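Q: Could you fold this chain for me?
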Amino acid sequence: MTMKILEDCIACGACLPECPTESISEGDGILYVINQETCVECEGHADSPQCVGVCPVECIVKA
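A: Sure. Below is the predicted structure, expressed as C-alpha cells.
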C-alpha cells in the first residue's frame, strides 16, 4: 500500500521535506499528490509514514 493525500489538503507544504523518496509534489496547485509508484510509506527510512505526522489537517491516509 501507499499513502494518498485527500481533498482536504491546504497545500501548506509541510509534507514535502519529510518524504525520503521525494514522492510528494504539487498537484494541480490546489493540493499535493503522492506518486503511488515511488511511495514506500517510509519503509526502510522511518518507523511510520513521516508525512502523516506533520500534516496539520490530517488529510494523508493509506491508499
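A (continued): Residues 1-63 form a domain with the Alpha-Beta Plaits fold (CATH 3.30.70.20).
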